[in-house]
Amino acid sequence: MTDETTEPKAISPVLAAEWFNSRWGPEDQRGNGNLMTAQKVLEAISLIKTGEIVSLGMPYDSRMPIAPGRAYALRMPGGPTGGPFGSRSRTIWNDEFIATEIGQIGTQMDALGHLGCMWGARGDKTNMLFYNGNRLSDMWSPYGLKKLGIENAPPFFTRGVLFDVQGLKGRVLDVGEEIKLSDLKACLERQAIDEKAIRPGDAVFVRTGHGSRWYSETKTFYDGAPGIGLECARWFSSLDVCVVGADNFAVEVVPPVDPEVFHPCHQHLIMENGIHLHEGMTFEGLVEREVWEFAYIFAPVPIVGATGSPGNPIAVL
Predict the structure, then answer these.
(1) How far apart are CA 240 and CA 237, in angstroms?
(2) 105: Cβ contacts below 8 Å, ≥ 6 apart
(3) Residue 217: CB partners within 8 Å, gap ≥ 6?
(4) What pLDDT, in 10s, does the model give residues 225-242?
(5) Going from the N-terminus, what domains does the chain have, and what CATH number goes with each?
(6) For residue range 165-189, what is the model confidence (pLDDT) as tens digits?
(7) Is the pTM of this model over 0.85?
């Protein structure tokens, strides 16, 4: 928690005056993941009609877009890596070595310790603040985060709702194009979903079309993207969702509407509300089947101290 010398109102124009007081208590590291209850699982199960599984994740390979400064390399030591063992079975095996920012490449879920705000002087970790007022000076270590790592996120098995903005517009949205709240509500109307049907603990997803640039515009994929604006982020948080995802790399629009306010949706959703972001997803399988509500399942890899998690989220229909 912040002390009396900190003035949260001065920290960012995005954050409320007492953003650092989580409703889940001063020690909470789970945020709206606390809404992931047994009742949400039962609600999600009620959506399953055929048992068909649709992948919502992209493959991890050397061709995927990588954010500037990050890396992905897979190597296989030896060939085979080990063996043979057993004079009769002659058993051998293959292993791989992967070097990467494992929580922040490809299809990824952000931990609550991923993004914060620097309020004080550069280098002053006591005034670099994160969800629930946690200071980087108390969180950081060279061996991973001591607080707010992805291991604190729950496994998600809840109702998912897709907002097909690309389908609404009839085109892939332009880089830097902001999705407005009116667009999201128009999606619900087009998809015959009542706004009141979105309940606390649900997961919501936005199809912008940027995912279609994954392999065709790999080198420029991270230069910018269409995405939601702050108005949409605030609406989602008002609905008490536990996850917001998209087929772009940041969920929100890039470049930001205000160049002086970078990643405002991240600050509002992660820092203020403890809502996990799921980035780099694909929704083409859902769109092909015209499915807008589904059981969303994702178990973040519990890498202690990691800033996020890779993995393959799925929809069960």
Answers:
(1) 5
(2) 60, 64, 66, 67, 70, 72, 310
(3) none
(4) 999 999 999 999 999 999
(5) 30-64+107-114+145-312 (3.50.30.50)
(6) 999 999 999 999 999 999 999 999 9
(7) yes
Tokens of 170: 């009839």
| Alpha-carbon gap, residue 303 to 309, rounded angstroms | 8
Burial class (CB in 10 A: 0-12, 13-18, 19+), 47: middle
Q: Within 10 Å of residue 59's Cβ, how many Cβ atoms?
A: 12
